[in-house]
Amino acid sequence: MVVLESWGMASVDLKLFREIFGETPFFSAGGWNDTNCWGVLEEGTYDAFAIGRLFLGTPDMIDRLRQGQPLNAYDRSRFYGPFPDREVGYTDYPTYEEVKSSGKP
């Protein structure tokens, strides 16, 4: 979504391909977040979508989406390693309750 917008192609979707390929499932990844994912599957343009980076940084993502809570920011510099401290930026992201109790935004 964000990438397509940066290329001046914000309105591009898979409708043309759906007409060509019929019942072939269509997946979309990249640019999805907690504000633009709602209703996408219901309208039928895509059959599934992935929220990868935000999922890595938000261990309780499903609960946060259900409750309308903000997602954690992720640390892209920790996506690829190897790192001597593998857990940093991988298994140490806080849950919403941990963020709320810490008093930090």
From TrEMBL:
SUPFAM superfamilies: FMN-linked oxidoreductases (SSF51395). GO terms for molecular function: FMN binding; oxidoreductase activity. Gene3D superfamilies: Aldolase class I. InterPro entries: Aldolase_TIM, Oye-like. This is 12-oxophytodienoate reductase.
